[in-house]
Sequence to fold (465 residues):
Amino acid sequence: MREIPVSEVTETVARLCVEANTDLGADVEEAFRRMKETEVSPTGKEVLDLLLKNARIAREERMPICQDTGLAVVFIDVGQDVHFTGGDLEGAIHEGVRRGYEKGYLRKSTCHPFTRKNLGDNTPAIIHTHIVPGDRVRITVEPKGGGSENMSRVVMLAPAEGVEGIKAYILQRVRESGSNPCPPIVVGVGIGGTFERAALLAKKATLRPIGTENPDPELAALEAELLEKINQIGIGPGGLGGKTTALAVHIEMMPCHIASLPLAVNIQCHAGRHKEAVL
Amino acid sequence: MSREIRLQTPLTDEAVTPLRAGDRVLLNGTVYTARDAAHKRLIALMDDNQPLPFDLKGAVIYYVGPAPAPPGKPIGSAGPTTSYRMDPFAPRLIAAGLKGMIGKGNRSSEVIEAIRRYKAVYFGAIGGTGALIAKSIVSSEIIAYEDLGPEAIRRIEVRDLPLFVINDTVGGDLYQEGMKRYAQAP
Fold:
């Protein structure tokens, strides 16, 4: 049994909140550069340049990439041989979010759903805990902005709609989202499971590094086909027209009920913010 | 072909009418920030015939909830939020004198019609470039609804804030036109 004080969790979460919001991922930056080569719209190329410039300023000045520093979605994979000491784990995560958002001059965006009163410290975090073998703890912080999250959906398709129905729904969702979710987007897709599991799969799909494909060749082919079709819609960088509407389509799939075909589409903005650490 | 035009607030009919979807604008002067909650309160004041916290005539509203200002800076990251959430309120403000809105994303047909009818303009800023946009903001002061935190109404001064004209007075729409131009599939 390995003992880990929860204070380490708090410190790590706080650091990851700031890093995820100020330091654009290398895979995203690489995708901007790559897409600039293939973008046909001059305005589109210019927007991709602005995104690169924005990332540089954010990194150098420790400014948030975007003013919407999101709700803090925290994935924590806990090795089953770990024993947390000195407090409760979830409390430690919330405290990490509180400190990170304060120290990093990040915007606090949590509010009461009815009164809309801002809670002032960006808690509660949205925590997804997973127990795994071993004695390590992997923490991933994904600050999720409202603009892209608002364009996301879960739908229970009829099984007969099949893969064609899945493709049609995803393309329609991207088309209807238009310029709202800050394209070029990452499209996270969850297929199967139950209502809530499909949504979680879609969110996890947004974490996969851009440029990687699903290990299942059938799903990898589906990702490639959807990316090509999405990039023919014309929305483009910033929604001003062009062929770079999405940087990636990531699909995660699992078995489902014989009566159901759950599908979740979680849209992620061009910053695709997330950082992880292993304790 | 897009042009670059330097504009000074408050905006007038004469300044707004020649603008066309696709034009690039460098905006200067006073701009007010307001999002969902502030819009709701502004409309409630109008319903009660109460004075607003700022003069709408010729005004420009920026849909933004900035990040906190780090030490030594006037404002934190300050990019646009998605505009459609303000669509139910915007036509009423436009009819009362609002001339410009800054945000990102498509507007409703009611807003587009109000822009045409009352000679206003919808500017797009590039979503997710808040660190860059903050460099064009030289000062910021909360003038109303401090309790709303990031959603408070701020008076900001901008210098050469780079924007695109999205919706103009003749029904032009850069998002629609841009998408059509580059669509490769029906």
